[in-house]
Each structure stands twice: as structure tokens, then as C-alpha cells.
């Protein structure tokens, strides 16, 4: 009887091993970040993070068609319409880089390449350049002034120089939806 039970147990184990199912590795632990409400004029974006060199980009929010911006001391009218992107950048390299927010670009449905609007960034007190260290995560807004009829399609993201790409000339395109 004992021999039969041992053989039955061995058969079950053998069949389980042949079922095609592989044991899944345990999930990596993650931080629990609290959910936050999306700003009233913004749409939450649920895009996968994208790497450019050793910088990870997560575009998490989009507000388009803003006619003006209000800062602490002024209201600023758009030449066309402002677009605001909420961006999270994370340093993934072995050392830090100087991250330049003003280097990012927005591509429109007409193929135009729009630079960050420096005056809007200053009025909204968004960062210019900062040290992005290994594992450092920074969240901020980018502002662009697009022609009134233009639609934002792609963020061209530049993470900064790496050991293999000292100039980072090409950037990485992130489709906005």
C-alpha cells in the first residue's frame, strides 16, 4: 500500500511538471504611492514608462487648449494654445546627469516640432536644469505654446548624456495616445 501511495505521489508530481505551467518568480516589492486627483483641466495618461539613455520618462497627465496661464504675479496669454504635460523622470544610470527640462520637444499632428515655452515655464515656476541622480524621481510640468489648430501627438524626450551617447542628439519619442 505504501509503495502504491509513493508511486501515485510521484506520478502527480511528474504530471504537474509536464503541465506546461512554470512557477512564477515572486513579485518584486513596490512602493505604495498614494493616488492623487487629476487637475480639473487635465486628462490622466496611463502610458508605459520609456527610457532615453539612463533616464526613465513617465508622462502622466495632459492638458491641451489652454488660452492663458496664471502665475503668482501675472496672467500670460498664449500665442496659440498652451499644452501642459505632467512628467515624471527617474534616474536609472549608475551616476547622475544634469537634466534639462527646456530641451524637451512636442511634435504636432502637422509635423511641427515645438520647443518648451521658456516664459510659461518661468511663470509657472517649473524647474530649468537639475541634477538627476541614480534612483531620483522628479515630477513637474512642461509647457508648450502650440498653434490654435495643432494637436499634440508626441513628446520627444531627452534624458541627457550617457557614457555611450555623450551628446544625446536623437531623444526618444513618446506617443501621447
UniProtKB/TrEMBL annotation:
Q: Which domain of life is it from?
A: Bacteria
Record keyword Signal present = yes
Q: Where is the signal peptide?
A: 1-23
Keywords, alphabetical: Signal
Q: Please report the name of this protein according to its UniProt entry.
A: DUF4352 domain-containing protein
Q: What is the lineage of its organism?
A: Bacteria, Bacillati, Actinomycetota, Actinomycetes, Pseudonocardiales
Amino acid at each position: 500500500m505504501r509503495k502504491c501511495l509513493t508511486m501515485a505521489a510521484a506520478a502527480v508530481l511528474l504530471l504537474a511538471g509536464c503541465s506546461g505551467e512554470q512557477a512564477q518568480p515572486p513579485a518584486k516589492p513596490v512602493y505604495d504611492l498614494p493616488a492623487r486627483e487629476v487637475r480639473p483641466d487635465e486628462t490622466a495618461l496611463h502610458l508605459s514608462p520609456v527610457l532615453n539613455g539612463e533616464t526613465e520618462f513617465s508622462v502622466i497627465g495632459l492638458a491641451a487648449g489652454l488660452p492663458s496661464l496664471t502665475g503668482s504675479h501675472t496672467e500670460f496669454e498664449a500665442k496659440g494654445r498652451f499644452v501642459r504635460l505632467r512628467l515624471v523622470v527617474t534616474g536609472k544610470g549608475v551616476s547622475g546627469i544634469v537634466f534639462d527640462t527646456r530641451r524637451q520637444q512636442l511634435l504636432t499632428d502637422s509635423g511641427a516640432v515645438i520647443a518648451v515655452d521658456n516664459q510659461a515655464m518661468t511663470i509657472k515656476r517649473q524647474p530649468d536644469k537639475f541634477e538627476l541622480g541614480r534612483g531620483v524621481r522628479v515630477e513637474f510640468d512642461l509647457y508648450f505654446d502650440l498653434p490654435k489648430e495643432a494637436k499634440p501627438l508626441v513628446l520627444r524626450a531627452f534624458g541627457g548624456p550617457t557614457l555611450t551617447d555623450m551628446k544625446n542628439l536623437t531623444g526618444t519619442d513618446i506617443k501621447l495616445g
